[in-house]
């Protein structure tokens, strides 16, 4: 476990101090933290697996003001003379270089800690297994509508909140999505959070944390960062209902305001949102909206006003997006799915809309394929790719499912398309980690989108800018 930097130690870093940013990333994932550390007057080094040439674009930006910056390999000698290490969230907790920093007594921090140390406004944290990105954006929109002031959102969403430093205000809200990787290292002594929201807490990242208990413990660490009397809300879906996870969490029940109804959401007997107001697919999005408004209510803000900010919410890329329809076949992109719960939720949502062809695969995070047995209840056929394909195809065939096996997701998509009939739904929802073939889930999802747009002749829409590498895991 890396040694967290204390608030006093971090604030004193400056002048002749040497700070190593470990994990600048080819797409500038650590760029915001690096610029902030330079702004504080530190001497900067970069530790990265990538070469100077691969990091050239980010280095040019940094070196405009700082002059030449050393780029060092991931080796213990790179820690010589270093006073502080700013660690990318994607660095594993058992990495030898983290252990070396601990042996040497070199404190470690991360960009999220640097932000919390400097930001003057109210901060709400959002974490969980599924739904945290959508809930983060919904809560930011709701707070912005309720307060009439610009609200920031960031953290594990990607990008850097330091890019918006000029717009920071003391009378402002910021909603932070926090991954389990970030949460496990976060410094909580200053109790920075005015509220905490957990849409859904299931099982994920067992390969990283070791077991479900350790994964939950990482998420629930954020409770220790709450200010006195601050609200902490847990969504009422799925495994979240299985027992009392923590008595500091309030499990949102059917009787809590706002109240879910067949038509949408009501607050004190007055409809505030209909199901049609949330454009994004899936009833779970209305659950996320309810959770956001419940937090707004506990902040003492006008819920009806806040709800106006959620109307027309279309969701995020790769979150069960209806991409298009051709020859009677509808294509859905749920590329964010790297575990069974997200894929099963997508298939449940779509089951009444027509027969489904599921395209899934990648690398298993824990080796447990049991949850995928439920696929048999939803899919007309299954088209698998990647590392998990041999074992999962054998398992699903035992359930009588029509399964094909492929090396790449493009091959699996093509096969599924060729099997489609009028009225079918193609659902790209991998359900496994991407790291067997791709750097992250977004890169894999872009391949699927490019395939679809090449099929429809709209190749320009298949390209999207590469995202920041600050997103801490899948």
Could you please describe the fold and organization of this structure?
The protein has 474 residues and is of the alpha/beta class. The protein folds into three domains: 103 residues, Rossmann fold; 190 residues, UDP-N-acetylmuramoyl-L-alanine:D-glutamate ligase, CATH 3.40.1190; 142 residues, Mur ligase, C-terminal domain (Protein-Tyrosine Phosphatase, Chain A), CATH 3.90.190. Helices cover 31% and strands 19% of the residues. The chain contains 15 helices and 20 strands. A six-stranded parallel β-sheet has the order 7-8-6-9-10-11, covered by helices on one side. It has a six-stranded mixed β-sheet with strand order 15-16-20-17-18-19, with helices on both faces. Helix 6 packs across helix 10 and helix 14 crosses helix 15. It is globular and about 65 Å long. The N terminus and C terminus are likely disordered.
Radius of gyration: 23 Å
* Name of the CATH architecture of the largest domain: 3-Layer(aba) Sandwich
Sheet-strand content, in percent, reads 15-25%
- The backbone outline, from C-alpha atoms, is globular
How many beta strands in the DSSP annotation?
Answer: 20
CATH superfamily of the largest domain: Mur-like, catalytic domain
Which sequence of strands runs across the widest sheet? 7-8-6-9-10-11
Low-pLDDT runs of 5+ residues are 1-15, 239-244, 459-473
User: What is CATH's topology name of the largest domain?
Assistant: UDP-N-acetylmuramoyl-L-alanine:D-glutamate ligase
Q: Major β-sheet, in short?
A: 6 strands, parallel
How much is the average pLDDT? 90
The level of helicity is 25-40%
Query: Which CATH class of the largest domain?
Result: Alpha Beta
